Amino acid sequence: MKRDPDGYDAKTGLPKDKSYLEKGLPPYLDESLAAMKKSWAIEDAGGTDIHWDLYWCELNADINSAEVDQSISPEQAEYLRREYLRMENDL
Prior knowledge:
Blueprint lengths: L26 H18 L7 H17 L5 H11 L7
Helix pairs in contact: 1-2, 2-3
């Protein structure tokens, strides 16, 4: 299998597509992530999910909990916040 050189960061050698950071998550985090993805799909299609704020808060809390108890890395936590909570890191 031939690798796409554009698919990797030249400095780190890591894939540019960071979705690999979604692998190996604790089950409770997988569940809240799935709920948030469904909610975003509704919102992004122009609909309204009346539970969006609940799913957002639950996912945020689950990411924080998993990071603090070291079930996920800080890199995974940052990726999940950016991708699924749509937060930006200002640091």
